[in-house]
Amino acid sequence: MLGEQIAEETGKVMVRRVISVDGGPRIEVTVQGTGKLLGIETRNTVTYSAGVRPDGSLYGEARPGRSSTSGCAARWLLALFVVLGSTSLMGAARADETPAASDIEDGASNDYDPWQHFNEKMFFFNHDVFDRHLLKPIAKGWNKALPDVGKRGLDRAFDNLGMPRRLVNNLLQGRFRGAGREVARFGVNTTIGVVGFLDVAKAQLHIDSSDADTGQTLGVYGWGPGPYLVLPSLQPLTVRDGIGYGVDGLLDPVGYVTPFLATTGMSVVKQVNKRSLNLELFQDVEDSALDLYSAVRNGYLQRRHGSIEQAIEARHTERHPPPVKETAAR
Which long-range contacts (CB under 8 A, 24 or more apart) does 92-100 make? Predict the structure, then answer.
């Protein structure tokens, strides 16, 4: 039994390995949380199980237990911990029984989604409840209140603040020129570009930003994506990208120098601003997709796969630059 503290909430995690009825190994993780989150009394229990069938395929399910109404917010915070922790335990338990994660990625389809039943429920909440009744209406109001140039400038400023994440992951990937470009972009855009509202580095110096993050770094080094995962109010993820998302949060310097409420406010503004910039794009996707869940899932997985392939190619090009062609003598 382990003690775990998440935000202002304390909880207990009970882990056990069992043999399922079909003979395959299974990991069960039960999280019992009590305490306060933002001053709200919380009590909740969630049991998550994941295992391996005899044919080598993975499966998983989450079984929410009894919880107080005010504990819903804390339950979503615990969900990511449960998924990530149980996945790591499951990987250790079956290390001698199945191929490596990268082998699974090579052999699996591009829409690897063993937790689809759970994910579809979370997708319904995100799209039909959270976005439709909260985020989208606020984004529409934001779109009317702020001119387009202001929204795009704010988006560039938030992107400028993400420099530490991109810098660290460029270094971890061995893309040292990419890390140098990130430092140069940050210096130019923070000063001449008015704390990033103007992308002077790209417009005048042709220095492009990278999309490096921890999930991408793990993929570059052969870490398979793991199952597709949808969690409340978050972008689509895989288990690998979920781990990366948590690490990227630790690389955000703003959270270390500003109060919690200010950091939360900035995150809300960033999400609303990003949604307002994509109102028409999202609507076009919703109108054209026959199966919106599958379209979002497949689009995300394909984009992440392409991002990792580009990062690997960029690292190879940086380490082995093409030979410079000699100019023919006149």
Answer: 93/17, 93/25, 93/27, 94/25, 94/52, 97/25, 97/52, 98/52, 98/56, 100/222, 100/224
